[in-house]
Known about the structure:
Blueprint: E1 2-4, H1 7-19, E2 24-29, H2 35-47, E3 50-55, H3 65-70, H4 75-85, E4 89-91, H5 95-98, H6 120-123, H7 127-142, E5 146-150, H8 154-166, E6 172-176, H9 196-212, H10 221-233, E7 238-247, E8 263-271, E9 274-281
Parallel strand pairs: 1-4, 2-3, 2-5, 3-4, 5-6
Antiparallel strand pairs: 7-8, 8-9
The protein binds adenosine monophosphate.
Amino acid sequence: MKTIASVAQMQHAVADLHLAxxxxxxxxxxxxxxxxxxxxxxxxxxxxxxxVVSIFVNPTQFNDKRxxxxxxxxxxxxxxxxxxxxxDFVFAPTTDEIxxxxxxxxxxxxxxxxxxxxxxxxxxxNHFNGVVQIVSxxxxxVLPNKAYFGEKDFQQLAVIKYMTSTMRFDTEIVPCPIxxxxxxxxxxxxxxxxxxxxxxxxxxxxxxxxxxxxxxNQKSPADIQREVIEQINGIAALQVEYFEIVNGDSLQSIQxxxxxxxxxxxxxxxxxKVRLIDxxxxx
Length: 283
Ligand code: AMP
């Protein structure tokens, strides 16, 4: 495994691989890796000749500067984990290296056809513009045949699929299932910021979501939405920011279970000061 910090060196490595007819798989991350990330890396390695993982905490997708400065970082630990998962190249550029050609305070604007107006988009203005800015840049450097994204960031996955098709990248987007802790909490780099007590409490988020699935045939989406929010807000230290039951393709809210063939409940909850996201497939 080789770690590369320079864009030019990464491009040279990629050019050599493509010239040799190798298929490149790519996993973009912000580091502070856990088993959730590694599941993407292992799938990537199994399906491609070469696995490239990027580690870059992208400042343009953080609307809260404190969240950016608190974001956990540990490159040497990440490298050891990636080596054991079979990664071939770690691309870990600095902010100056990746954004040498742009003013990062100048907002990047992409037309999401409405995908950015709901859920995360409502609460994190410009977040998805920053995500598209970095992922499109990384795609143009790494030129991957396949790129792997977790279903944990459900709206991000929809945005990336849309970006890939409108920007005409020749890259297949591969969705990967959510990896959870043994008691159900979706693995996240932000879990490291929870106290031991908060981590226990946060397990209730997935517990309430899983239980709500048992009522799909008896209750309306609006009733399930209200009850999930009430139950989670009833637990000390947890505060729901939003919980929406949506068409899994368009991300628009649904009224009836028959409104879409694929229905997902997406939630964001504050556990103390830590913002956690999760989702569950209903249909
Ligand atoms: P991040 O470093 O948080 O930007 O995540 C990098 C990639 O890993 C994204 O595609 C995430 O959706 C994915 N990911 C993060 N946590 C999980 C998880 N618990 N299960 C599956 N994929 C995940």
